């Protein structure tokens, strides 16, 4: 098996199991542990995995988020549920902002149901999908392209956002703890903050499995958002903490607000 094929096979295993063991990989592919070490080093350098003692994982850490190519293949049912709930906030004729991320990419495609719309985004997956669609005025934000996030980021992106205004911005996050939303990448944080500042209303989208986790950078206070949508109910302690802070959580799976 060629190195590229082996590394893709490792990615597939990570998507299925979220973590892999060094010894198991060496046995599975009949190669040395040093070869697997080099494979994992390559994947880590590409931002695909996070090496841990004895193996690797794609679970987000304080300073790590898995590659877009992995995230777009995970949790599709949850993404669809949240996107459908978010779609209720959109009316034809609106100007809508959608940020980076695989969750946002699912929502971006669903927005076709609400056209005509003006759509502002730095999400390359959405740009590619909607660029030839009728009744969609697509404002594609420029900047430095990030393969890891499949998005355009940086000063150019932020300055463009400062000169635009939207009726609503949809912002996704990989981590919520207490009453704060977090992200591990400072360029992504700045782009998301610029979208929040440029929209009349804001909606936060977060998988319930990421509630109770932190990342390196504080992105925003949950009170900054008009609506917060998650796919399923998080741990009761988290729901209670949010309720004490008068923060409502919309649960997409049961179409109720807690």
Automatic annotation (TrEMBL):
Keyword hit for Nucleotide-binding: no
Span of domain HTH deoR-type: 3-58
Pfam family, one: HTH_DeoR
SUPFAM superfamilies for this protein: NagB/RpiA/CoA transferase-like, Winged helix' DNA-binding domain
Keywords, alphabetical: DNA-binding, Transcription, Transcription regulation
PROSITE patterns assigned: HTH_DEOR_1, HTH_DEOR_2
GO MF term set: DNA binding
The protein's name in its UniProt record: DeoR/GlpR family DNA-binding transcription regulator
Organism ancestry: Bacteria, Pseudomonadati, Pseudomonadota, Alphaproteobacteria, Hyphomicrobiales
